[in-house]
Amino acid sequence: MSSAVLTPLNKDLKKSVIRDSNIELLRLFAIFGVMILHYNGYFALSLVTPNSINQYILVLLEGLFICAVNVFVLISGYFSVSTQKRKAVKALELVIQVICMNIACYLLTALFSGSFTIAGLLNSAVPNNYYAILYITVYLVSPYINIVINRLTDKQLTIFTVLLFVLFSVWPTILDILQGYGLIYGGLYTTNSSGSQYGYSFINFALMYIIGAFLRKKSYNFNFYALLTAFVVCLGILFVWQFKQPQVARAYSNPLVIALAVIIFLLFKKINFKSKFINSLSKATFTCFLIHGIFLGKIGIANFVNASPILLVAHMLVSAVGIFLVSWVVWVIYDFVTRPVFKFIGSKLTCLDNVLSPENT
Description:
Order of helices and strands: HHHHHHHHHHHHHHHH
Mean pLDDT: 91
Oligomer: single chain
């Protein structure tokens, strides 16, 4: 599932047919967004001079890309709502890649720093990755979500999706805002008695999956300029909001963050082109998600964050491109080594696949 995690789950197209590349390009956009977010979050935002042009650039990019994880899950919902088939090996592939990349990153870091320990190595073998675990959870239960969605009328599906959006996005965000002003009402949350978890939860992942499925079922065709206007408005509000309540503004469960994910998805849907190159690159998105962090402390962010704005942006872009290309090479090698293994394992898990797929039970 290394590529399946951040790519459509349905791969029934013949190999001779080049898949449309607009969504593959969107995945690349989103993974570059993840790298920019971590460029900001790990180092840049804490080092940048307050009220400088550079700070405004970083905050603007933060608002633009904070929806990246939501985009990935939304894409899965959009492409997976039409099938109830699930394969156990895909979940296993995901876990194994997390473990392999964790171990590789630990060994690389520990050997260069001289801090290698057996305990550290064993700890790195734990697939402690929130995205992977939440994605697997959604992947396993999504066939049953699909059954519900596919049995609803258009009106019922609209009411269902809007209701979930209000209950699990709008209302928790209102409470998060109030909490920022000292008004704490933990017992009023619909997500968790201790708060919204800012969208780092199965609830938000399931919501984004359902929104993606909703978009597929409804097949809306919004005007490009209307989408562009909505994009600018959402981004502008998020930009200002971050200076007031940054954690709430940057929450995955924030209605504006979810709206931005939907808008960007719909904008990319309007792009029509085919590219084997883009499709090939997009397969490395999950690998990049797993290993990009190891490079961020090595690229001299502190030397550029308060340099000229042009130099800062250039450093961010060049760093992101370089890290992704390294990730793509790692993915190619990893896929070459593991593909035969997972193909064999998958052939032995067909009974479990039948259990996981409601249409076979």
